[in-house]
């Protein structure tokens, strides 16, 4: 006797459909599972056996072979339980085979036959839809998440015993049709600032830093804030999500799939609309940042995809952890190789970092009560923890000065998040029109021929950049980043050309480049 059903598993963060073949023949009672299953999949055999018996079905006392195809792909996770159980029940004619034809089966079984939710359902259902599946049968707890993929019928099951009374696949008793699940944050008035309680209007003074934050948001550029303790660096960065436009449907699906695969999806009833904001502690390992493990899982750089990765006290992170950021910042993806597979995770994010100017925090801003005790050598060693190649990949280096008492009491003329968001969204719309059909969305993605075609300078602007290139000892990468930054400044000013003042402002944001830093310290 032979039967076949379709299930799915995760490969990285993407879904992969798997054929579950069941063959039952006469012989000594035993069950064999083949097709490169991991330990979690092998353990499913005992769960399936108990679930079938406790749901009122008969477990066959014959030789059972279960094959997971394709056989050369390693299978991981507990999502095959339901498919294996139904494969056995169909093969033994306890459940009609036509009930689940062209239906994706996902779910983990408890010993009593109840179905438990599994991570990564969104990616699995999305993969099934791409190859033409119209129906999916899964645990009721995963139904809302699966229903986020339009154009596919979702059947919610709570217990294996329900298949006894499921006479037809179109039974309305199991069809998930909750029309309220799509009501999410997309409908909220973002311009009114209702999504975020923190507002840039709460920050007194720091007008130049606020402008830099707005430029970073407008072009999705990386930014580094340098200043003594208590100047508001963390406060400024934590308000950055309030000036980022909402994600598009495509971006929302990308981010939701990552969180679904990681088991971190905060709400299974809606797509994620807020851009992620991740702020790992400086004790995090390199694997925690970029992902890893025996079965690789997304790290912080992927959980921050389409959002912000905030690294506070940047020099306190280990050198190894910081250096592994170089490839994600350049390629906007992370590739992790293992013996049996290579996994690729998306990692397109804004790197926002903050640091003190020296170990004690008061270098260059000494007062009677807070005098810097660091020697020039100690300051140089502290800053050397951030390598030149990593610093090259940060577009804006911003000094955050200590505010005076009058600035702290200033309450008028403060730029609010809603005002900044309007300008950022205008800049984003200009970029969307400019790059339509070119495979990129924002200025920070410009490179190569497209960069040269788009960022054309006036003779005065080119002369200014040439002089700065030699004086600051800029690298070719820093040169390109200044061009992208100047283009973003022009977009904020609604200018169709890059003017010399745009170039000059962009150059000012490179004040931590190596040659200048060495001169200042010495």
Automatic annotation (TrEMBL):
Belongs to the Mg-chelatase subunits D/I family. ComM subfamily. Keywords: ATP-binding, Nucleotide-binding. InterPro entries: AAA+_ATPase, CHLI-like, MCM_dom, Mg_chelat-rel, Mg_chelat-rel_C, Mg_chelatse_chII-like_cat_dom, P-loop_NTPase, Ribosomal_Su5_D2-typ_SF. GO terms for molecular function: ATP binding; DNA binding. This is YifB family Mg chelatase-like AAA ATPase. It comes from the Bacteria. Residues 219-404 form the AAA+ ATPase domain.
């Amino acid at each position: 006797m032979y039967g076949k059903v379709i299930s799915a598993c995760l490969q990285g963060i993407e879904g992969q459909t798997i054929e579950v073949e069941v063959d039952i023949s006469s012989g000594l009672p035993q069950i064999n599972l083949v097709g490169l299953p991991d330990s979690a999949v092998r353990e499913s055999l005992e769960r399936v056996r108990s679930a079938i018996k406790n749901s009122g079905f008969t477990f066959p006392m014959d030789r059972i072979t279960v094959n997971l195809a394709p056989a050369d792909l390693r299978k991981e996770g507990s999502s095959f339980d339901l498919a294996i159980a139904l494969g056995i029940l169909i093969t033994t004619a306890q459940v009609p085979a036509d009930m689940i034809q062209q239906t994706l089966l996902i779910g983990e079984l408890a010993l009593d036959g109840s179905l438990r939710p599994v991570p990564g359902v969104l990616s699995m259902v999305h993969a099934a839809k791409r190859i033409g599946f119209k129906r999916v049968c899964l645990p009721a707890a995963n139904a809302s998440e699966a229903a986020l993929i339009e154009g596919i019928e979702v059947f919610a099951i709570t217990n294996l015993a329900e298949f006894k009374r499921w006479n037809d696949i179109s039974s309305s008793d199991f069809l998930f049709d909750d029309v309220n699940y799509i009501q999410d944050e997309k409908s909220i008035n973002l311009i009114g600032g209702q999504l975020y309680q923190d507002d840039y209007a709460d920050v007194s003074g720091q007008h130049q830093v606020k402008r830099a934050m707005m430029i970073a948001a407008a072009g999705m550029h990386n930014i580094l804030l340098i200043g003594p303790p208590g100047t508001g660096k963390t406060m400024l960065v934590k308000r950055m999500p309030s000036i980022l436009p909402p994600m598009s449907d495509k971006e929302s699906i990308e981010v939701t799939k990552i969180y679904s695969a990681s088991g971190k999806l905060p709400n299974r009833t809606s797509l994620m609309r807020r851009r992620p904001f991740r702020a790992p502690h400086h004790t995090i390992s390199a694997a925690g940042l970029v992902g890893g493990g025996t079965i690789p899982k997304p790290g912080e750089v992927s959980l921050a995809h389409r959002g912000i990765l905030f690294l506070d006290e940047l020099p306190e992170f280990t050198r190894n952890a910081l250096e592994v950021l170089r490839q994600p910042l350049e390629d906007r993806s992370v590739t992790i190789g293992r013996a049996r597979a290579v996994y690729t995770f998306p990692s397109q994010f804004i790197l926002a970092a903050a640091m003190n100017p020296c170990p004690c925090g008061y270098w260059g801003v000494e007062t009677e009560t807070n005098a810097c005790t660091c020697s020039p050598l100690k300051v140089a060693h502290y800053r050397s923890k951030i390598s030149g190649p990593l610093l090259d990949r940060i577009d804006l280096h911003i000094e955050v000065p200590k505010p005076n008492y009058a600035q702290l009491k200033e309450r008028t003329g403060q730029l609010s998040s809603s005002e900044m968001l309007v300008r950022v969204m205008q800049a984003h719309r200009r970029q969307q029109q400019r790059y339509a059909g070119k495979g990129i969305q924002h200025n920070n993605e410009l490179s190569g021929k497209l960069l040269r075609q788009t960022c054309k300078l006036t003779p005065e602007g080119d002369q200014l950049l040439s002089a700065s290139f030699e004086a600051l000892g800029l690298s070719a990468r820093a040169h390109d980043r200044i061009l992208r930054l100047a283009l973003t400044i022009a977009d904020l000013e609604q200018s169709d050309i890059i003017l010399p003042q745009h170039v000059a402002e962009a150059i000012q944001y490179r004040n931590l480049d190596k040659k200048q830093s060495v001169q200042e310290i010495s």
